[in-house]
Amino acid sequence: MQNYCFNTDSFRDARDKVEENPNEIEGYNLTTALKGALEAEHFICEEVFAEDFGWAFYAFRDEQKYFITASVDPEDDQVDFGFFANINVDKTRSFWDRLRGRNKMLDDDPAGQIVHRALKSFGDVHNLEYHPAS
After folding, report:
1. Domain of life of the organism in this record (predicted)?
2. 110-121 and 28-40 helices cross at what angle (nearest 10)?
3. Among 21, 68, 81, 105, which is disulfide-ready with 50 (CB 3.0 to 4.6 Å)?
4. CA–CA separation, 134 vs 117, rounded Å?
5. pLDDT average, residue stretch 41-63
6. pTM to 2 decimals?
7. What average pLDDT does this structure show over 85-105?
8. What are the extents of the domains in the chain?
């Protein structure tokens, strides 16, 4: 899994969208922006849906499947600027792949690279931290 953390003043969700999330977590607009970036690079993406930890969608390219999640926390008092945002890009692997250590997510994985480029292009992303695939 690759993880990205940053501060932003953008990607705020409308109140009715926040209320669709079981824990009223923002991140729908951020997740939708990431989905658009992946679709522009020929990924096939499912619809964004609410999760108890934020917002998520599945993305596919060739025979590989990814689980992309995002959240924006406007209430985080540890942030010096804007709001704290968190994104995870996880490569879905079969039980046998995990058991045998195959098909691991690497730092040069295409989905992670596209997300990284998208974040750099969004403009209102500050203090971007990247935590490599593990």
Report:
1. Bacteria
2. 120
3. 21
4. 20
5. 97
6. 0.91
7. 92
8. 2-131
